[in-house]
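Input sequence (444 aa), recorded before submission:
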Amino acid sequence: MNGAAQGALFELGAGAEIAAPPGWPAPPARPAWQGMAGMIAETIAPHTEADPVAVLAQLLVGAGAVIGREAWLAVEATRHHPNEFVVVVGESAKARKGSSWDHVARTQGRADPAFAGRVRTGLSTGEGLVWAARDPNGADPGAGDPRLLVVEPEFVSVLKAAGRDVNTLSPVLRAAWDGRPLALLTRTAPARATAAHISVVGHITAAELAHHTSALEAANGFLNRFLFVACRRHRLLPEGGDPDPLAGTGIEARLGRHLAAARRAGQLRLDPAARVEWCDAYAELSEAGDGLVGSLCARAEAHVLRLAMLYALVDGDAVIATAHLRAGLALWDYAARSVAWATRAAAADPVAEQIHTALAASPDGLTRTELRDLFARNLPGARIDAALANLGGTGRAQRRRLATAGRPAEVWAALDPASPPAAEPASRPARRAVPPGPERSGGP
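Predicted structure, token format:
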């Protein structure tokens, strides 16, 4: 195997392996593949061109959607339910994002056939999301089931919708991830979804993600409620693999029993050994990162706990053990590396490239006014913000503030990615960026 594929988690049986492209994030460490979720992904892997980590991540999110709100993990006064948001990031057509979901959809459909009616697409407004999970109200019977799994093969449409000033999708999705009651107050007949359990699976290309990720949506907590998982085509199967690799294994029936039990699990807790490891990992996960990467990884602690809970529930356990926590940490590490990879790919953004070229030619840097003038003031400020966030997150530019008689001036300067950034003034200490980093070799 080539160096980029070292640490692969299974032997490639059928089909020729495709080498990872340069700069591709290192694969998830072995703990990510533990338990039933890992077994399902590894059993499917030799029979599909899809990325096994895409199968794994979507399987966990789909399982959490089926389980609903009757399982939770308490952190102070907050309940974290097993609903998660994941976006699979890969090149159009070639990454086999759709194939990865097809395997998950079949497995989920067999494990819980009754849930099929709660899988939807077409996420465009907050009002529509509330309506799809609404409570009964008078003659309106409501949605009937507060669980909802939204699958968006074109997640870029969600980013476009969320970026519109009058669209309520971003705040409603944020509240849905938090498990808070959702309300629709703009209709003649107001709707509420007091116990909505919303999970989201999205597919997008790295270029689309870079182009439509605004600094506002990165900073306001919308996008950091999503796990971003890089995926690629893993093998060539000219005639396809086994069309039903789980047939005859009994795995889907076992998964169905585990998910049914999870719907009655109640409050989950970490066992004593997992609590010790969680305390060790918590400080590192809590460190704030800088730039776009730091913004997108700002909810690391919550994502790790939800992933650990999902691994436990899929295994049929109501206690989170060390293996489940380590699995959550390993998959989160890959998600963080995926964000770093996606933001490096964002350097292909023509606006970011034009800004970087201008900064490189200006040793003293450029102010925001000068950057707007660079585009003859014809480019929206949010678009410039997104390009600067991409350059800052990938270590190609740095912001500093200069004292003036009035408001401090914001100046951007080009950086050599191989050189450490200069420290900001003492009043604005620089924060450590979340690096792509090496794989974890084990626990936290």
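Checked by second reader. The chain has one domain: 3-346.
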